[in-house]
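Slide 14.
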Amino acid sequence: MKREGSPLTGVAAIALKEAADHMTSARMHLIMLLVLLTAIGAVYGAIGRIRETTAEDPFLFLKLLTVAREPLPSFTSFLGFLLPLVAIALGFDAINGEFARRTMSRLLAQPIYRDAILFGKFLGGLLVIGIALLTLWLLMTGLGILFLGLPPSGGDVARGIAYLAATLAYAGVWLALAIAFSSFIRSPATSALAALSVWLVMTVFWGMIVPFVASVIAPLDPLDPMSVLAQFEAQQAVARLSPQTLYSEITAMLLDPAARSVGPLFLAQLQGAVIGAPLATADSLLIVWPQISGLVAAMILLFTIAYVVFQRQEVRA
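Slide 15: predicted structure.
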């Protein structure tokens, strides 16, 4: 039977309702309080380090995100570590929570399709993360103006906005992963554990696995000097299967205007280049465009898996 009307009817209502539920939940408040405190600590430490070591710099505000002061890591390191936890917390019970509360049949009794439910829940979680990221970025900018006494330049703002967009895509990957587990695992606790296990492997243990896999794919040959480069390229390719690696490379390029590449550079590639001269924001975006595309593709793939599984599930009153 052919469906009547748009399958996306009601997406906005579900997304706003989901975002409102997240924003008012105690779980979200505790997580965001943790992120806020760690972010303020990282930025405050960076400001102290910048005051001690940095002279005149046209991209001073970008150093607020990347400079670290012991024992605290940088703001971007904190965000790369904690943001997946926020996304997983928002999505691990998106679908199975409705089944557990026996509200899925009531939701589908409304004049909406399943498409709208899944899209609405995903967009609602992404909206909450976007608001949180924008708030953190504005807070960082305000602290920088207050303690450094300088406004951000146009280049700082452009690179900051590009970094925010890439960070939102990175969070979307983990949100889509959590919703995918929520779609085919009926227990919310089990789906949360599964999503956290994937995050732990990709964030903590992936760096240990990559050298072993690369040595199997491209073993070193003592008679071939190019085998070293081949193994490095294989190691880099395997490492990029992790969203954490892609996000780290994007961060390194967008927040460091002097960076030229995310991989090895040969002398022939540096001919005509002014060493230390900053790249334009568009040039930096072009270099990491494959990484950004990889994050978006992973997000779409995981959401598609969740969509197919959810569409095939039987819902009983």
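Speaker note: The mean pLDDT is 82.
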